[in-house]
């Protein structure tokens, strides 16, 4: 079955950086668009970034210029490099493909 396992979350000060990883198994990784979403307390889950099988990327306006999504087909892993983090980036970050979701990883940005 499809499994998505996120890692790399943590506590960081505003202006700092984190890199999230999502290791995928049980699917033909190179055939699918991979995405990152996030959910802050009391808010709906929202789109953050995606990377298509051809390498086309898309970002939410709120993270453009600060976050970078990338994928490594050899490792079946998608990454989210997050720079210049802000307190409003605090959320649980989820990796997703098709109808499958990871368990999420907490990112907390202190002011």
Can you walk through the features of this model?
This protein is mainly β. 0% of the residues lie in helices and 53% in strands. The protein contains no helices and 11 strands. Strands 2, 4, 5, 6, 9, 10 and 11 form a 7-stranded mixed sheet that branches. It has a 4-stranded antiparallel sheet with strand order 1-3-8-7, with no helix packed on it. Strand 9 (91-97) and strand 10 (100-101) form a beta hairpin.
Helix content: under 10%
Approximate strand percentage: over 45%
**Rg, Cα atoms, Å:** 13 Å
- What is the count of helical runs? 0
Q: Which residue ranges are poorly predicted, with pLDDT under 50 across at least 5 consecutive positions?
A: none
How does the overall form come out from the CA principal axes?
A: globular
Largest sheet: 7 strands, mixed
Give the total of beta strands. Answer: 11
Summarize this entry quickly.
The protein is an all-beta fold and 111 residues long.
Quickly list its features.
mainly beta, 4-stranded antiparallel β-sheet, 53% strand
Any chance you could write out the topology, listing elements then pairs?
Blueprint: E1 3-7, E2 10-13, E3 18-25, E4 34-39, E5 46-51, E6 57-59, E7 67-72, E8 77-82, E9 91-97, E10 100-101, E11 105-110
Parallel strand pairs: 2-11
Antiparallel strand pairs: 1-3, 3-8, 4-5, 4-9, 5-6, 7-8, 9-10, 9-11
């Amino acid at each position: 079955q499809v499994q998505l396992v996120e890692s790399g979350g943590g506590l960081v000060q505003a202006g700092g950086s984190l890199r999230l990883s999502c290791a995928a198994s049980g699917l033909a990784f190179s055939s699918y668009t991979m995405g990152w979403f996030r959910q802050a307390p009391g808010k709906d889950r929202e789109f953050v970034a995606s990377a298509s099988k051809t390498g086309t990327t898309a970002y939410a306006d709120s993270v453009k210029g600060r976050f970078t999504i990338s994928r490594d087909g050899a490792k079946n892993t998608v990454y989210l490099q997050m720079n210049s983090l802000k307190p409003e980036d605090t959320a649980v970050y989820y990796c997703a493909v098709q109808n499958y979701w990871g368990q999420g990883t907490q990112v907390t940005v202190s002011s």
